[in-house]
Design a protein that fits this description.
There is one protein chain. The chain has about 650 residues and is of the alpha/beta class. It folds into 2 domains: about 475 residues, ANL, N-terminal domain (Rossmann fold, 3-Layer(aba) Sandwich), CATH 3.40.50.12780; about 120 residues, ANL, C-terminal domain (GMP Synthetase, Chain A, domain 3). The protein is built from 20 helices and 30 strands. The radius of gyration is 24 Å and the shape is globular. It starts with 20 loop residues before the first helix and ends with a helix. The model has no long low-confidence stretch (mean pLDDT about 95). It binds ligand 6R9. This is Acetyl-coenzyme A synthetase. One of its GO terms (molecular function) is acetate-CoA ligase activity. Pfam families: ACAS_N, AMP-binding, AMP-binding_C.
Length: about 650
């Protein structure tokens, strides 16, 4: 790892970054030495408050009690909209790009204000009050943002459910947080196909008797069934709604939203975020991590159904008065050039996506990229999983033409915002490393006895203290919050991830701790082996799991998807096994290797290793729930073709 090439900070005479190397170190030290002073200063700088707070922070990890800026009063929608109207009313807040390349909308801050107020008034009309939960099951159209901000405006707590989730998943989320209003659309458009959201909602709601209102945004002219007692045509209702709605005065610690996320056990948890700390943390990270400058076009390709969509499509960028691009389509439609075409069309300077998308596009070849200009690009971000150095280099060299730093951001639904990341003007880069902590963030690595490791080390990644964007509880189950994150290592927040720290103090995320293999007493990150495999020119994607092995404890089982046009053979198998042995060492040699046309993935693109482990272990009866998979049929094929 120490021989990894370091890429120096990219400097441009036309552009002064917000944070340079010297400032990073100085501000980081300040933020750790006196966190309350630091965060108090930032909270004044980034947020407009109706009333000041009583105390900056009050945190006890031993009891899982966390509060920031308690007593302070603000409104998130006011901060994302109203305060920009003085000098930015006509600036574009949201650019929407539809599934088809000829569809676009431009929404100014004034229009955003009017839309959000009308939506807020519509919710009030249907009886929604401060503290009520509202479920949002929507396509990536501007109305998903209007709906979220409308909830924030009246103090309702939104729970956005990803539009790709099944009726069953939608139902359990509605019931868990007792939502009585659902906002949905007739359908969403993805890669030329329609996803019937309203029909899914109808199925889910059969078992949700307390939902009294379904607001339907008709965006696709798609045929839907209608329940007169419950369903409301949003555009009809909107016609009578005033374009003014006074923002509710909220405490910094009032809930802003719930977002469900899966852990290693149990049903998905409702991660609860509150208002003041979350908004401060997302706006500040958005500005510094992406070095956002006024007037720039910023594009994050996530879905609003994930935390990345909440923090870095809507709340962070809009709090900063930025122009944020919302994309309804997919990276490969109508062709694998789509991302780069959209970048050229809207002159995007900051682009933020996931390694899985980068790898998929990389497999499609360079020409799809190089035929587009991409001259507007300045910064390239990544999030969601460890990025293998091969994909990093491709993103850096081919997409960014070595002009744009790769900002590998490590964080979680639970953390609200980015915790470990380079800053464009401040951090030399190493492919595959998320590099250093953001201001106020104090990571540590622990061994299995909860002892803090010094210097170069490998261990459980924890945080020693709180940051304003941290989740506050699991909805309806505070004990679960404590048990999941604070019980294993008392006094620390445990991320569930493993990491290594190198001699420069850079962090390298090795993946979920439950994905770590122990082969003959050697610990090995599955991500490490996957990285090695995808270095091979014939490999597009790889997933590695452990399976029970009589002698080694765990053996290494590898699933490999080949580049287009390649065919699996015994020779190629041997070649790949030898390749891994060469890259990492004989200890990492796969015991079994299966070629797979497709890997089972969640709709957010994460490989479901839980399922791959069951297949590898010949335990297909206990495969469990496959309903959250993008394509459940992939699993049957893998079982059929198993060695
Ligand atoms: C933001 C988001 C969180 C988990 C996290 C880790 C993995 C995210 C990463 C990364 C390596 C990165 N992860 N970013 N691993 N490098 N830059 O993805 O939230 O969906 O809750 O996932 O994703 O394992 O623990 P979430």
């Amino acid at each position: 790892m120490s021989e990894v090439k370091t890429y120096p900070i990219i400097k441009s005479p036309q552009h002064k970054p917000h944070i340079d190397e010297e400032m990073y170190h100085r501000m980081y030290q300040q933020s750790i030495r006196d966190p309350d002073k630091f965060w108090g200063r930032m909270a004044h700088q980034f947020i407009d408050w109706f009333e000041p707070w009583d105390e900056v922070s009050n945190v006890d990890f031993k009891k899982a009690e966390i509060s920031w800026f308690k007593g302070g009063k603000l409104n998130a929608s006011y901060n994302c909209i109203d305060r920009h109207l003085k000098d930015k009313a006509e600036h574009t807040a949201i650019i929407w790009e539809g599934d088809e390349p000829d569809q676009q909308r431009y929404i100014s801050y004034q229009e955003l204000h009017d839309e959000v107020c009308q939506f807020a008034n519509a919710l009030k009309e249907r009886g929604v009050k401060k503290g009520d939960r509202v479920c949002i099951y929507m396509p990536m159209i501007p109305e998903v943002g209007f709906a979220m901000l409308a909830c924030a405006r009246i103090g309702a707590v939104h729970s956005v459910v990803f539009g790709g989730f099944s009726p069953e998943a939608l139902k359990s989320r509605i019931l868990d947080s007792d939502c009585q209003v659902l906002i949905t659309a007739d359908a969403s458009a993805r890669g030329g196909k329609k996803v019937p959201l309203k029909a899914n909602a109808d199925i889910a709601l059969k078992d949700c008797p307390d939902v009294h209102t379904v607001m339907v945004v008709k965006s696709q002219d798609y045929d839907i069934s209608w329940n007169d007692e419950r369903d409301v045509d949003y555009f009809e209702l909107k016609k009578d709604m005033p374009k003014e709605c006074k923002p509710e005065v909220m405490d910094a610690e009032d809930p802003l939203f719930i977002l469900y996320t899966s852990g290693s056990t149990g049903k998905p948890k409702g991660v609860l975020h509150t208002t003041g700390g979350y908004l401060l943390y997302t706006s500040m990270t958005h500005k510094y991590v992406f070095d956002y400058h006024e007037g720039e076009i910023y594009w994050c390709t996530a879905d609003a159904g994930w935390i990345t969509g909440h923090s870095y499509i809507f709340y962070g960028p809009l709090a900063n008065g930025a122009t944020t691009l919302v994309f309804e389509g997919v990276p490969t439609y109508p062709s694998t050039s789509r991302f780069w075409e959209v970048i050229d069309k809207h002159k995007v300077s900051i682009f933020y996506t996931a390694p899985t998308a980068i790898r998929a596009l990389m497999a499609g070849g360079n020409e799809a990229v190089t035929k587009c200009s991409r001259q507007s690009l300045r910064i390239l971000g990544t999030v969601g999983e460890p990025i293998n150095p091969e994909a990093w280099e491709w993103y850096y060299k081919i997409v960014g033409e070595e002009r744009c730093p790769i900002i590998d951001t490590w964080w979680q639904t639970e953390t609200g915002g980015i915790l470990i990341t380079p800053l464009p003007g401040a951090t030399p880069l190493k492919p595959g490393s998320a590099t250093r902590p953001f201001f106020g963030v104090e990571p540590a690595l622990l061994d299995t006895d909860a002892k803090e490791l010094d210097g170069v080390a490998n261990g459980s990644l924890v945080m020693k203290n709180s940051w304003p964007g941290q989740m506050r509880s699991v909805w309806g189950d505070h004990q679960r919050f404590y048990d999941t994150y604070f019980s294993q290592f008392p006094g620390y927040y445990f991320s569930g991830d493993g990491a290594q720290r190198d001699s420069d103090g850079y962090y390298w995320i090795t993946g979920r701790m439950d994905d770590v293999l122990n082969v003959s007493g050697h610990r090995m990150g599955t991500a490490e082996i996957e990285s090695a495999l995808v270095l091979h020119p014939k490999v597009a994607e790889a997933a590695v799991v452990g399976y029970p092995h009589d002698i080694k404890g765990q053996g290494i089982y590898v699933y490999v998807t080949l580049m287009k046009g390649q065919k699996g053979s015994d020779e190629l198998k041997d070649e790949l096994v030898a390749h891994v042995a060469k890259e990492i060492g004989p200890i990492a040699k796969p015991d079994k290797l299966q070629f797979a046309d497709d890997l089972p993935k969640t709709r957010s693109g994460k490989i479901m290793r839980r399922i791959l482990r069951k297949i590898a272990a010949d335990d297909v009866e206990h495969i469990g729930d496959t309903s959250t998979l993008a394509e459940p049929a992939v699993v049957e094929k893998l079982i059929e073709e198993k060695l």
